[in-house]
Amino acid sequence: MGKNKKLCIIFLRLLALGATLSAAIVMATSEDSTTVLNLTFDAKYDNSPTFVFFVIANAIASAHTLLVIFLPSNGLFPLIVVALDVIVTLLLTSSISATLAIAYVGKKGNAHAGWLPICDQVPNFCNQLTGAVIAGIVGVVIYMMVLLHSIHSVLNPLLF
Amino acid sequence: MGKNKKLCIIFLRLLALGATLSAAIVMATSEDSTTVLNLTFDAKYDNSPTFVFFVIANAIASAHTLLVIFLPSNGLFPLIVVALDVIVTLLLTSSISATLAIAYVGKKGNAHAGWLPICDQVPNFCNQLTGAVIAGIVGVVIYMMVLLHSIHSVLNPLLF
Known about the structure:
Two copies of one chain form a homodimer.
Chain A (H helix, E strand, L loop, with lengths): L2 H26 L2 E6 L2 E6 L4 H21 L7 H32 L14 H37 L1
Antiparallel strand pairs in A: 1-2
Helix pairs in contact in A: 1-2, 1-4, 2-3, 3-4
Protein name (chains A, B): CASP-like protein
InterPro entries (chains A, B): CASP/CASPL, CASP_dom, CASPL
Family (chains A, B): Belongs to the Casparian strip membrane proteins (CASP) family.
């Protein structure tokens, strides 16, 4: 693999690290409170298991990226990296889809189920959540690009 | 590829077709109604965009499987099949995660957001939804097995 290509992949992995790490941190620090009839309600990420899953998935992806940058690129390591990249991409896709589904109910509510939207009451919480989801989507898109490249570079020495 | 292996993969694909098709049909036919204070409420899959996404994703996966079974296995076709398998696996993972997230709120509610569980009111709807999710999970697991095999069989002639 050319040195430029290698540097380009490390750059992409660092970008992915930045995206998944900020997604996890922004989600984990999201908080807002509202007062209804003298009662104060707190909105935090750990109020929903889906948001906790989102933080864990992005933390795992960040740890994976850090690990992969320092792994040697000889022997069986590239194959292991491709396998791990596939698993982490599936994990990120799953956590973002679940978070989007819950965030949509938080934003629009669901009249049929009698679930009211909560974003008007806790706007700061919803804004941070939106930021976290955008960072998460950026992360998974970079992951998919890196994955395409790692599959190609594992195939490459066999093809040519 | 040996004839037995080919038959085994077609068998797995037919199983996946059965699973994704039943997931789509069971979800699309899920319905229940409840009467509260003389008002009747209907619970249907199209009350939530997440459940509609689930039906569409499983329908796409079913169509993909049907198409792939009749595709020839020479030239560039196996590579195209691997690429499509990856996309469909991501699509199924995404739809099942989102559906599980919403189904969990339907089952347990979310006290922090003031969302009440609805499964006690519409048990038949929840049971059908559970069946659809289980069929969906079976489908995506078989898809992952087929994907592993197709990646292996694309690599195989290059490796040996």
